[in-house]
Design brief:
Beta Polymerase, domain 2, Ubiquitin-like (UB roll), 6-stranded mixed β-sheet, globular, Hypothetical protein af1432, alpha+beta, 29 helices, 6 domains
């Protein structure tokens, strides 16, 4: 048993190297450097067969020729970078295809090599890996952020198809970070921030803890060089002060395991500078208060030995209450398994111990990459890491199916990149890992999309709870569903998982499109009746009708009738113009206007009361119809409808000043609307109440509103200093105009109320 040097554990070797001076080496020196680098790589490839090593040599020669004459910012030949990336992949014992792809990962982007060339030389599997790694710099995007988001989206989807893509990408980023000293300062900051926000969390999510810690450490060094240097010095000083304590603890632990006749490997470990910095920030403490900088890792032969070793340690030193975690029974979301316990030694120092088996240690350090290191799926951890990793990768594909916007996709993925989990149970005792802060809605979507879409209520530990309740580890969660229920847009304010967020947004977008399509069909049918014609059938059309729709959509530039009708419903196309074109096409087929239909259409075009063919509003229209916030129309108001470009139908009151100004600028997009006879729900009206300031005045106003059978949905008393009188702005939920009048009369009779009136724009 031995303990490694803490100095070697603390910082990656790359951090201890000084920046290279950029200077172009002579050709002979460059060639020697290439050969030396490749020789180091071949030394690591002993686990591959001779045929595979031959293929890797061919890929090296191909990449070397492609990058001939190219140099890095440090002055080194460019080929040294792909060789170093391939070396990191070899450390993870990836297969020959991955090593070849690592050697050629920049060939398509930087050297003009095409995918067909790679397929011909090295086969489709290697070419697909290289293509998945190629950035999208050649495509044109409006902004750098959009380009970055699209690049990440492609990379993550390629990774979902083949996890080797992300392993090579992480090796590429790790080597770039190690050799970034030669870059300009502004580039270093941008790349370090991107690494900290995206690449390090991906490494963590896939269980590559060694790469994760080094990426974090290097990013911190370049983002905050002064803080990093100051903390590094503090850690070195602390290492010197505490050496005696560490040696004494090590001796005690070795002696205890010797008495127990338990075969163990004990290694020392030290928190990284970045993790110390984050702990100081989170707990608002100084460096002196961070007392668990040093710790020990205990590796044992068998799973049962983990718990036996835990018993030995707890007999030796007192455990700190609440600091024991069993990640063996319930692994972390990235497959990590260990026992964690914090003990207090006789000198009062807190020391953390991690206890695990050798396969668990492989997963803890290399995560999903351990699959290639240990081909056999060991029951002690490798199978679990693979399963959890593949579950997350599959979730990326599911999110992509519903999210075509790259920025939105990246937002969903970022949510899932931090697996600080809570563990909850289904009623059948199945354990689910969810992000911290997850709610019953997240739980429902984790079980199945249909469960999430039809959720109406939830119980936690047998008690009914609100759907926005944050779940805690150990909770037993049960979801109540109803066939007619559908996702609520308000859920987006509190769900935490990317899967739930993307499923809700996808459902709402589909609903909006369906409602807009129905509205567009109604508007086009109404406009066509004014031409004396009936709308051809859209669903299952006969041959003449299908030909009509094909000609019409070709003229409008739409992919089909459904898209054209949706565009009309969203205001992107004007129904009267489309109807005139459709009438021309129908005339070419020999169809003539019908006198009865023409009369009905003209009658429907009038704007008197009792108009036929109008769009009726009953409160069930969904997202395709919006009530204008400027005037907040309610049943009984005279109303008009504005079909905004891409915004759907917006309903204003006829006297609304905003609507009048809009009508002066754009007369074509206005359509007649009216209230339905049966209204399905209450509507919001804005009311201004002037009250005499005093104790209990708000309660009296609320009581008056309640007495009139209305509800207050929002109240605003402004920011000004309260004087003798105060203005309250209320949003009231009322049935119609008569109900509002009744509420205002009740308010005016209430004590302390000086004035009550409806707010008009």
């Amino acid at each position: 048993m031995g303990i490694r040097s803490f100095a070697a554990d603390l910082l990656p070797s790359a951090l201890q190297l000084g920046p290279r001076q950029p200077s172009l080496p002579p050709a002979a020196a460059a060639r020697a450097a290439d050969v030396a680098s490749f020789a180091e790589l071949t030394d690591k490839l002993g686990y591959l067969g001779k045929a595979d090593i031959k293929k890797v040599r061919e890929a090296y020669k191909f990449a070397d020729e492609a990058h001939l004459g190219q140099f890095r910012a440090s002055g080194e030949p460019y080929i040294t970078h792909p060789i170093a990336v391939a070396g990191l992949c070899a450390d993870w014992r990836l297969d020959a295809q991955a090593i070849m792809a690592a050697l050629m990962h920049d060939a398509m982007e930087d050297c003009g090599i095409t995918k067909p060339e790679l397929i011909e030389r090295f086969g489709p599997a290697t070419a697909d890996l290289v293509d998945g790694l190629t950035k999208l710099d050649k495509l044109q995007f409006n902004t750098r952020e959009e380009s970055q988001a699209e690049s990440f989206r492609k990379m993550l989807l390629a990774m979902a198809r083949d996890v080797r893509v992300i392993l090579i990408k992480l090796a590429d980023r790790l080597h770039n970070m190690r050799t970034m000293a030669a870059m300009a300062a502004h580039k270093r900051g941008r790349i370090a921030r991107e690494t900290l926000d995206i690449y390090a969390p991906i490494a963590h999510r896939l269980g590559l803890n060694q790469a994760y810690r080094e990426l974090q450490e290097l990013s911190f060094q370049y983002l905050h060089p002064w803080r990093h240097a100051a903390l590094s010095k503090a850690v070195q000083r602390a290492r010197g002060y505490r050496r005696d304590i560490v040696d004494r603890i090590r001796g005690d632990v070795e002696k205890a395991f010797g008495h127990a006749k338990l075969k163990v490997q004990i290694t020392g470990r030290e928190k990284t500078v970045y993790s110390i910095y984050m702990k100081m920030r989170e707990k608002h403490t100084g460096f002196a208060q961070v007392n668990d900088i040093f710790g020990f890792r205990v590796v044992v032969p068998e799973l049962f030995d983990c718990y036996q070793a835990l018993g030995v340690l707890h007999q030796l030193y007192k455990p700190v209450p609440g600091r024991f975690k069993d990640y063996i029974a319930i692994p972390k979301a990235n497959g990590y398994q260990s026992l964690h316990t914090t003990l207090v030694n006789p000198l009062g120092t807190a020391v953390e111990f991690q206890i695990r088996t050798e396969p668990m240690h492989a997963v803890a350090e290399a995560g999903i990459a351990a699959h290639w290191m240990y081909k056999v799926k060991d029951a002690n951890g490798l199978g679990e890491a693979q399963r959890l990793g593949s579950m997350w990768l599959q979730s990326l594909v599911d999110i992509q199916d519903e999210t075509r916007d790259a920025g939105e996709f990246l937002e969903h993925v970022k949510i899932d990149l931090f697996p600080d989990a809570v563990y909850v149970f289904t009623p059948k005792s199945k354990i689910l890992a969810l992000p911290r802060g997850a709610t019953p809605v997240d739980f429902a979507y984790t079980i199945h999309t249909n469960v999430g879409d039809h959720t109406v209520a939830a119980t936690v530990n047998g008690e009914p709870v609100a759907l926005r309740t944050e779940l805690k580890s150990g909770d037993v969660v049960e979801i109540v569903t109803a066939p007619g229920a559908r996702p609520n847009p308000a859920w987006l304010n509190f769900v935490r998982t990317g899967r739930a967020r993307s499923k809700i947004r996808h459902y709402l977008k589909n609903m909006e499109l369906e409602e807009s399509r129905a509205l567009g069909e109604k508007l086009l049918a109404q406009a066509l009746r004014a031409e004396g014609l009936q709308l051809p059938p859209v669903e299952e059309p006969d041959a003449p009708a299908a030909a009509l729709w094909q000609s019409l959509t070709r003229w409008s530039g739409n992919r089909g009738p459904a898209e054209l009708l949706t565009d009309i419903g969203l205001g992107k196309k004007i129904a009267t113009i489309v109807a005139k074109r459709l009438a021309q096409l129908m005339a070419e087929q020999g169809q003539r206007p019908d006198a009865v239909t023409l009369t009905m259409g003209r009658f429907a075009a009038r704007e008197e009361a009792g108009v036929q063919g109008m769009v009726t509003i009953d409160g069930n229209e969904g997202t395709s119809v919006q009530l204008a916030r400027c005037c907040r129309p309610i049943p009984g108001d005279s109303i008009v409808g504005y079909l905004g470009r891409g915004e759907g139908l917006t309903v204003h009151t006829a006297e609304c000043a905003v609507a009048r100004r809009l009508h002066e600028r754009d007369t074509e997009h206005w359509i007649p609307v009216e209230w339905a006879e049966d209204i399905a729900r209450p509507f919001e009206a804005a009311v201004l109440v002037l009250v005499q300031n005093g104790k209990g005045v708000l309660a009296r106003v609320a009581s008056a509103v309640s007495a009139a059978e209305a509800d207050i949905t929002h109240i605003d008393m402004g920011d000004e200093h309260a004087g003798e009188s105060v203005e309250m702005r209320l949003l009231l939920s009322v049935r119609d105009r008569l109900h509002l009048a009744d509420v205002l009369r009740t308010l005016k009779r209430a004590p302390s109320v000086l004035r009550a009136q409806r707010v008009k724009p």
